[in-house]
Amino acid sequence: MRLVLVGPPGAGKGTQAEFIAAHLSVPKISTGDIFRSNVSQGTPLGVEAKRYMDAGELVPDEVTINMVRDRLAEPDAAEGFLLDGFPRTTPQAAALDKLLADFGTALDLVLELVVDDDEVIRRLSGRRTCRGCGKIWHVEFDAPTREGICDRCGAELFQRDDDKPETIATRLREYSEKTAPLVDYYGAQGKLVGIDATGPVEDVTVRAIDALR
Ligand code: ADP
Ligand code: ADP
Ligand code: ADP
Question: Which residues are catalytic?
């Protein structure tokens, strides 16, 4: 299955992507994770992306599209994938359609996680990520047993630089200006399914998996 997850920053895309990708046995491709990994390794792509990420802005389409093109060409994505955080603009969506058409395939479904702004702000301000395994935690809604330590792998948790209040505001603005139009784009293709992404993580996962059938 070829699936895209859309929704505002903090909607729970990364959290759900992990369960959904495991359920479907497809690779999870998160552009945010790939950018962050390039930033921490200091690659040229990371150096370029960091300026935008720190400001809460989207990385330019050309850079992002080239990166995704390379990733989708890897053998593990041939039979299906779950894209988390891409596309985020109409040109990215059009480039993805073109890329898949060149491979002789197309997206099956776009799953929209629907959450309001107040909830998104609560989720982003308490988000913590594991430095070791990348698992996503929340100080209040999904807290580890020992503060600041990942239950799964024992490594230290950190707060993302872009989860600061000023940057969150910019990211939400970028979302409504540049990403929200994708709902109409995929709606017009008949591929969009929206689900309520509030409530416990497990309930959202059940709704997401139901929507795939
Ligand atoms: P969140 O999960 O909070 O929405 P991500 O981890 O997906 O955030 O993305 C973090 C940052 O990486 C974004 O604010 C943006 O700067 C950059 N980024 C990720 N995906 C894209 C994309 N598809 N297009 C442009 N920039 C992106
Ligand atoms: P993850 O499994 O951590 O979500 P991926 O499997 O998508 O990430 O990518 C694994 C690693 O490969 C990342 O750490 C990233 O640095 C690197 N990577 C993947 N695709 C690209 C690319 N197109 N350009 C640069 N680095 C990439
Ligand atoms: P995104 O990838 O869309 O930015 P994340 O998956 O990183 O979102 O989730 C943002 C924050 O919200 C994380 O701290 C995560 O633990 C928390 N979270 C995710 N889903 C839920 C939920 N259903 N209820 C409460 N908190 C959640």
Answer: 13, 88, 127, 160, 171
For the domain made up of 2-211, the CATH class stated in words is alpha beta
ipTM of predicted complex? 0.89
Q: Please indicate whether residue 37, judged by its CB atom, sits closer than 6 Å to ligand 2.
A: yes
Q: Any idea what the Cα angle at residue 37 is, between residues 64 and 129, rounded to 5°?
A: 115
Q: Give me the helices (H) in 103-177, please.
A: 117-125, 165-174
**Which band of pLDDT confidence, cut at 50, 70 and 90, is reported for residue 213?**
confident
Amino acid occupying residue 154: G
Which ligand ends up closest to the CA of 85? 1
179 Cβ below 6 A of ligand 2: no
Q: Spell out the residues 6+ positions from residue 99 whose beta carbon is closer than 8 angstroms to its own.
A: 68, 69, 72
